[in-house]
Write a structure and sequence with these properties.
Blueprint: H1 2-21, E1 36-44, E2 49-52, E3 55-60, E4 65-71, E5 75-89, E6 96-113, E7 135-139, E8 144-151, E9 154-157, H2 178-184, H3 190-194, E10 215-216, H4 220-230, H5 234-238, E11 263-264, E12 270-271, E13 277-284, E14 290-296, E15 303-308, E16 318-319, E17 325-329, E18 340-345, E19 348-353, E20 355-356, E21 378-381, E22 385-388, E23 401-403, E24 410-411, E25 424-427, E26 433-434, E27 447-450, E28 473-476, H6 481-485, E29 495-498
Parallel strand pairs: 1-6, 19-21, 20-22, 21-23, 22-24, 24-26, 25-27, 27-28, 28-29
Antiparallel strand pairs: 1-3, 2-4, 4-6, 5-6, 7-8, 8-9, 10-16, 11-12, 13-14, 14-15, 17-18, 18-19
């Protein structure tokens, strides 16, 4: 890849020289050859909206290009992403922003279905307890606002989940009537609720499933903890004070506000709305047949049963103590390599294990921690990891610090590109290579500590593109200042001092 890129730029420069050689050279400056790039703009889904421009050529380096995405009715703009090439967005989350090219690039405007919903300040179904002080949060996947309630040491959603998935087809409304979804939430089969996760009986379950970020599907022991805290008459105390058939209402003293949303049978028919409320757990009885569900009905106690996983039930999510997740992968996708693990907790992403990180440009799932990207403030890479993959932290604008261990020997292409909040980085002496555009657009950098006595060879000047080298101080080992001053790219930093 490096060879091809260098050759292309060489051919471009040669072409420019050839063009001038046959013309009047009166105004020609051989040190200022202009290379022009082409921008291609895609959008997804194609029914989601429009973009301006759809393509533009003749763009010179460092020339800002205004780009606009306009959502169609029923959709909303999500963000801009880079499909190929090299480009930097001023704000990838703004539909009207600026992009700057460092090479030919293809970018994409992403749209998603968007439903206008009432604010948390309104009581959409009229069954909350006015004497309870509810909390609230917004599910950023669809902008739906949910009320929450603390019961004992747990914080529950005070209403059923209404998430329909990115395509709008996840789960179903009772009797296929959207008005029932507004009141009771959606009905999901167990497989959809788990979203690929395995059964869990723990407290907490550790299964996010289809719950919003920072929330999870309750396991058997979490339901048991709720019932234990409520005590006797759990069915009566957890039911809403209105909305039940035949006056079979509850007292809702804890604000759980359980409604009789009924369910969908495996054959697709619906039953028991108005009489029973059901909710899934993460705990299965058989890997192919049934899973634990909780229900309230005519009894004064909350009941428990094992239900066919194909049945559709509502879902209540429980707030996680911290948005924690774990991901694992092998280098090279399918290569025989020791595992490298990523764990996110309370603003810090920790990468540990033995071996190289993958190339995130080519990974099928892209950057695995995209779901919490905006919450990542610190990155800690532990000893044993040998490389930081291409684009691993591309566009992580809220990242302020990164710890790189002495086991790392290479930093990939665009690894920290667009990390505008990063203020300082320390490169251990073990690092021998830095990829193209690795720190491109890190405009917040004020110091770089390079611990190798010999300057790390830099082949591409774009590594520190858009980094103001007049305001960044480069700290190097004592006795290496002259070597860095005379080294390619490193010598462009006006402040080069000995590290303490």
């Amino acid at each position: 890849m490096k060879l091809n890129f260098s050759l292309v730029k060489a051919f471009a420069a040669a072409a420019a020289l050839f063009m001038f050689s046959g013309c009047d050279r009166g105004g020609f400056n051989g040190n200022n050859i202009s290379v022009e790039y082409t921008l291609t703009v895609e959008w997804y889904p194609v029914t989601g909206g429009t973009v301006t421009p759809e393509s533009q050529s003749g763009i010179t380096e460092e020339t800002p290009v205004n780009i606009t995405a306009a959502a169609a009715g029923g959709y909303r703009f999500v963000n801009w992403t880079l499909t190929s090439g090299h480009a930097l967005f001023d704000d990838a989350n703004d539909a009207n922003t600026i992009v700057t090219l460092g090479w030919n690039a293809t970018i994409r405007a992403n749209f998603e279905l968007h439903e206008v919903i009432p604010t948390c300040g309104s009581d959409g179904h009229g069954h909350f307890n006015d004497d309870i002080e509810y909390g609230s949060f917004v599910d950023d996947r669809d902008d739906r606002c949910y009320r929450t309630v603390q019961i004992g040491e747990q914080t529950w959603m005070a209403e059923n989940l209404h998430y329909a998935g990115a395509d709008g087809n996840l789960g179903a409304c009772y009797d296929n009537d959207p008005a029932h979804c507004d009141t009771y939430g959606r009905l999901y089969d167990w497989s959809a609720v788990m979203n690929g996760a395995s059964s869990s009986s723990s407290n907490p379950s550790g299964v996010r499933g289809i719950c919003p970020a920072g929330w999870h599907v309750p396991g058997r022991d979490e339901w048991s903890a709720l019932i234990s805290f409520v005590g006797s008459l759990s069915g009566t105390q957890l039911k809403s004070a209105s909305g039940w058939n035949n006056g079979n209402n509850g007292t809702d003293v804890h604000g759980f506000s359980a409604l009789p949303g009924g369910g969908r049978r495996a054959d697709g028919s619906f039953e028991n709305a108005g009489s029973f409320g059901y909710w899934w757990s993460t705990t299965e009885n058989s890997s192919t047949v049934s899973a634990l569900g909780r229900y309230v009905g005519e009894s004064t106690e909350m009941g428990m049963g094992w239900y066919n996983k194909a049945i559709g039930f509502p879902l209540r999510c429980v707030q996680s103590e911290a948005p924690i997740f774990t991901r694992s992968w092998n280098a090279g996708i399918g290569a025989d390599s020791a595992a490298v693990i990523a764990t996110f907790n309370d603003g810090t992403l920790t990468v540990s294990g033995t071996g190289p990180m993958i190339n995130f440009w080519s990974a099928p799932a892209g950057i695995l921690w995209n779901e919490v990207r905006d919450s990542i403030i610190n990155v800690v890479i532990e000893d044993g990891v040998t490389s930081i993959g291409n684009a691993a932290f591309y566009g992580h604008a809220n990242l302020t610090s990164v710890t790189i261990p002495s086991s790392v020997t290479s930093i990939g292409m665009s690894t920290f590109q667009g990390c505008t909040g990063l203020t300082s980085v320390t490169l251990p002496s073990s690092v021998t290579s830095i990829g193209l555009s690795a720190f491109w657009g890190c405009t917040g950098l004020t110091s770089i500590i390079a611990l190798s006595p010999d300057p790390i060879p830099i082949e591409y000047w774009e590594i520190f593109q858009r980094v103001d080298k007049t305001n960044v101080c480069l700290y190097v080992p004592e006795g290496s200042i002259d070597a860095y001053k005379s080294a390619n790219i490193w010598g462009e930093f006006e402040c080069i001092m000995a590290v303490d």
